Amino acid sequence: MITNQIVARGIKDIQVIEAMRKVPRHFFVPENRRESAYDDRPLPIGEGQTISQPYIVAFMTEALDLSPEDRVLEIGAGSGYQAAILAEIVREVYTIEIRPKLGGTAQERLEEMGYKNIFVKIGDGYKGWPEKAPFHAVIVTCAPEKIPRPLIDQLTDGGRMIIPVGEKRGIQMLVLLRKEKGMIIKKAVMDVLFVPMVKGEKFMVR
Ligand code: SAH
């Protein structure tokens, strides 16, 4: 996976490569998918959701230009895999999941694996995590139609965000954003396909 999917496609950040080498991806997929865990594609993780393709995880992580002292917010914990990759690189990872069962499983799994620097919350990530802000980086792994304003507000000066944006069932664009002295600098980096960012209480009922 590392050689053929990550390095061959141009990922250079050694922190990202080492993290992807270290985190056992097969722990994060359902048991009947274990054999496919290192395939070059996303995989179902239940409730119609997916764990992203390894290359996309690496690309988004690299794009955030992370440092060991950073605190990062993730929206869409899903399986917890992306959070684990981040936690290998940075000081603290805060991750929000709107579907309680997925979030609960991710939290248990990450605890069992011994991660002490990942904090999982069940809730609507659209609003971010104001009590823990500001964040040096924000990564969104579900696609809203527009970039949620609260997430921009919760970035530090110099903070980075990577987020897929697009209409429901339409083309989504992966956007890299940087906050610089109150200014927002945005760059479209590639077309992607993520599950939609959903809103509302119905997902939060156990
Ligand atoms: N990063 C995950 C991939 C998750 S797929 C991993 O590494 O496995 C996207 C996730 O976003 C889904 O689990 C979905 O339930 C969640 N999601 C969708 N809308 C959300 C919202 N408003 N707030 C938080 N999570 C949301």
Walk me through what this model shows.
Strands 5-4-3-6-7-8-9 form a seven-stranded mixed sheet. The chain has a two-stranded antiparallel ribbon with strand order 1-2. The longest helix has 13 residues, at 100-112. The termini are far apart. The chain has one domain (42-50, 63-203): Vaccinia Virus protein VP39 (Rossmann fold, 3-Layer(aba) Sandwich). The relative contact order is 0.13. It contains six helices and nine strands. The protein is an alpha/beta fold and 206 residues long. The chain binds S-adenosyl-L-homocysteine. S-adenosyl-L-homocysteine binds next to strand 2, helix 4 and strand 4.
Key structural traits:
25% helix; binds S-adenosyl-L-homocysteine; single chain; alpha/beta; Rossmann fold; 206 residues; two-stranded antiparallel sheet; globular; 6 helices
Compact description:
With 206 residues, the chain is α/β, with parallel strands linked by helices. Helices cover 25% and strands 29% of the residues. The site of S-adenosyl-L-homocysteine has 24 residues, from β2, α4 and β4.
What is the CA–CA distance across the termini? 36 Å
The CATH architecture is: 3-Layer(aba) Sandwich
Name the overall outline.
globular
CATH topology: Rossmann fold
Average pLDDT, rounded to a whole number, is 96
Radius of gyration over C-alpha positions, nearest whole angstrom: 16 Å
Give a quick account of the main beta sheet: strands, pairing sense, barrel closure: 7 strands, mixed
